Amino acid sequence: MTAGMKGIPRNPGMDESGMTACRICGGQIEPFLSFGRMPLANGFLTADQFDQEYFFDLVAAFCPSCLMVQLVDQPDREKMFHAEYPFFSSTSRFQAAHFEKFANEVSDRWIGRNDPFVVEIGSNDGILLRHFAGAGIRHLGVEPSAGVASNARKNGVNTLSGFFEKDIARQIAAEYGPADVFLAANCLCHIPCFHSIAEGVDILLKPRGVVLFEDPYLGDILEKTSYDQIYDEHVFYFSVLSVNHAFGMHGMEIVDLWPQKTHGGSMRYCIARKGTHPVSPAVGVQIGRERELGLDRIETYERFRQNCETSQQNLRRILCDLKQQGRRVVGYAATSKSTTVTNYCDLTPDIVEFISDTTPIKQGKYSPGTHIPVQPYEKFAEAFPDYALLFGWNHKEEIMAKEQAFLNAGGKWIVYVPKVEVLA
């Protein structure tokens, strides 16, 4: 498990046949869904930046060798994660409760009494690590977005601003010693250099230490046709089959897993060195289920493409009909996922008047690509639209619970996951 392992590609690129190579195993990947020209999902911008906006081809592909679903191309990480990155996890009360429970479970099950040390990558504003900080447990967050990392430090969370990889792991191990637990929440799916991460874990983790990470689950994406989970930051779309294969290349294995409701359907994985922990029966059960669902066959992803195209057509039809009727439609929540939807479905300001969002750094800007104005929530509440297009569908329960006034005023929701429909 050292740098330069044979058979592990260091950088994605073209193989000898000129085809795009898998980031995990180096095999030839099979593209199955193209969204065309796409901007950065979190690239909210001002009007004077329109001419300099960055675009790339958003294409998803399947590797028949290691079963990893991935993007063909991903923008440079510095373009996506920077000092003005606009996402802060703590703005969601649901997320806050989720991570508090996660922290408690880690503490109860995985942390020993002998001066434990916890490391989290992609720690954002410290929403998870703050619970370890509050308990006096040694911890370190590694967060690439400097502005978000600064916010975490202000909240008492020990945070290093940078991209985690094996060299950073060596520095952390030298300064803090080995880690009992390595955490990542909605992070590993963002990182194309998977093998450098795995090697860093091997350097940093105690012999019986564990990796606990959760990310959007491929099975849920396919089942719900939630194509908006596909955007620049998500380079990998994990299944149990593909995760076990990828970590297996580093002498590790999944020893347990737990489905999660977050992000419209996620999976939490517990990874350890092979033979150091018993493997839960849940792992074999989930692998069997994935094979039954066809997550190991390209035909499954071709059907997913067809479902996405149907969803796109149905959403445009509803919105164009409402436009002809003179009805006001406003987007609700300027999410990363909304960028995929607005661009894939060609939703412009003449169709969606504006997008309401509570994040100050996004307000007064425009949505990536389609340039729909982003307005403060007060703009939505002061004159309710006829329809609200729910971009934050993964927070549907939380949002609808607080928007009774909108419904009482006769407002209706438009949703597109798991199917396109209007909710009164």
Structure report:
By secondary structure, the protein is of the alpha/beta class. It has 2 domains: 89-296, 3-Layer(aba) Sandwich (Rossmann fold); 300-423, NAD(P)-binding Rossmann-like Domain (Rossmann fold, 3-Layer(aba) Sandwich). 33% of the residues lie in helices and 22% in strands. It contains 14 helices and 17 strands. It has helices at residues 77-80, 93-109, 130-134, 146-154, 166-176, 194-204, 218-224, 240-248, 281-293, 298-324, 336-344, 377-382, 396-402, 404-408, and strands at 30-39, 55-62, 69-71, 117-121, 138-143, 159-161, 179-185, 205-216, 236-237, 252-260, 266-273, 329-332, 355-357, 374-376, 387-390, 412-415, 421-423. A 7-stranded mixed β-sheet has the order 6-5-4-7-8-11-10, with helices on both faces. The protein has a 6-stranded mixed β-sheet with strand order 14-13-12-15-16-17. Helix 6 (194-204) links the parallel strand 7 and strand 8.
Q: Can you tag this structure with a few keywords?
A:
Rossmann fold; 7-stranded mixed beta sheet; globular; disordered N terminus; alpha/beta; 424 residues; 2 domains
Describe this structure in a few short sentences:
The protein is of the alpha/beta class and 424 residues long. The chain has helices spanning 77-80, 93-109, 130-134, 146-154, 166-176, 194-204, 218-224, 240-248, 281-293, 298-324, 336-344, 377-382, 396-402, 404-408; strands at 30-39, 55-62, 69-71, 117-121, 138-143, 159-161, 179-185, 205-216, 236-237, 252-260, 266-273, 329-332, 355-357, 374-376, 387-390, 412-415, 421-423.
